[in-house]
């Protein structure tokens, strides 16, 4: 929608914003092999990308293969209305999680604020032809024209991807669902809202087990909510959930049916000298992820990412500053609501590098072995396809280099909240508002 | 203690920003976000804590007693008989049982009136406040609704009027509202605080009038509470449409959610009395803060 200089009185920008709001990507997830990449957006749609397979028998050429193209698109959730509470239910996809593949079809779970759905994604590249009673278009033939019998045969056709809803898990949550996590047993999954965590069986939609309930008897006593939850990657009885107070609780489902009592609680004591109006907000954990090994936890709060060792509860083993320069700007970030942004964090396949998003289309990667962090940018203007990403820097004092960005020049509307890392290779998917960037490490495509 | 140095905005503005956020969240798509509102309530509590600390410290330093005595003497000159009666009655209610009756005006309590002239107003205030806040304590814990509300609503106008900076403690208007009977009590005198002149001109016309009571309807009550967000003495904010406010009041489930949220924030405040007590000797500060807890909770109700 171009700006029209001839009609200054009409401002079309609101239309532009309306159109793109639904396209804002709200979740990104690779499947277990990394061949499929799913994104969900605020409009309730899911787009699945598939990696192009390399030509058989030919060596891989740089830039020729391994790219992701659109595989399928479907409408997962529609806007809904809760008549009892007079509440609108947003169709925004909060999370997508793939199930481990068991046959030719792929399954994924997608959730909005209230309802989780299981989708079956299957391909069809053959169709039967040569029916006796139906013609090519499917119309019933006049029986008098049938003079002989033939056996229908399967003929190849253009590839068709079908996506069908197989289960709908509804009415399980009073509050807004923020996480889903598939169990390593392949049969169950958990869903977490602000106050409760439920465990479902993938085959049963009319009931679920409530495994965590932190709702106080008197809501006036409420002091914390659940912000994220995940099953352990290897132990099907363990899961972790994070809270708005910055604590992590590891729960063992073998201990009791209701896991309100944690097995371990991970929290870092607050530094009393650093207390401000916004201490509670910036300590709220927005994302928690188990490492692939299952030994560590990665958490993200507003200003830092932290690595925790499951064997040590008293504090994180590593803390990385994502954008410490924002600490003095918390007031204005509170006013414009940016302080409530929930950033995700991810591990690479070998748990040696962690990554998280920031503002101004920047995202940060931290090498755990060296402790060093690097800032990269996901922005169309500054990176052409197949160009090498150059590192960026936010100027916070000292010698100013060319290309440094001042803190006051940061664009807080361009935020990188959602991202995913390929399970085996150095390929990352970054969601920047309504754009998806896929970066591949050509130098070290395979992780060591 | 909260470090306010890095924040470019003062506590008062933070309070109004926070309340505005809560108000806006009620009309956001997707319903009230519990997590976000909980975090906002923490900011609200922190800002209020800082604001109260600052204001009480200021008052304490300002040698309140002498100023109040001056005010009271001047007020007594207006219409000593009627006011004294009123004050006596109100003070009695305040420091007596007072359950469920019309709220006593703390300002009225400050007026020594003829039978208590000997007592320093500060002590009297503390005594009254202690009595109030003790009940507020109980009210908070037992949720004894009627007295708790009226007691705490009483403290709300205090903050509007009492905490005016500078030397003058001239109170141009003290309004108290009983939330159960919706009776608004207004005490007016002829002495205007400088800052209040412009905004409350119309109120203070006929400034020599004695204390009067009037009944108002619910719509006006909401308009009164609208002043809370600004939290600046005597500053008038824009009034919401009464019908809108009424329909909000009927949306009980959302309102009760909000109350619950803010109740939690302020229950937290109850348990952190030590901060107050360290900041300010004596129990005056913390108990006043406790007494006004309900006013905040009820202020949110109006949204």
TrEMBL record, chain A:
Keywords: Repeat, WD repeat. SMART domains: WD40. GO terms for cellular component: protein phosphatase type 2A complex. The keyword S-adenosyl-L-methionine does not apply. It holds the Pfam family WD40. One of its GO terms (molecular function) is protein phosphatase regulator activity. The keyword Repeat applies. Gene3D superfamilies: YVTN repeat-like/Quinoprotein amine dehydrogenase (2.130.10.10). Belongs to the phosphatase 2A regulatory subunit B family. PP2A consists of a common heterodimeric core enzyme, composed of a 36 kDa catalytic subunit (subunit C) and a 65 kDa constant regulatory subunit (PR65 or subunit A), that associates with a variety of regulatory subunits. This is Serine/threonine-protein phosphatase 2A 55 kDa regulatory subunit B.
TrEMBL record, chain B:
It holds the Pfam family IER. InterPro entries: IER. Belongs to the IER family. This is Immediate early response gene 5-like protein. It comes from Alosa alosa (allis shad).
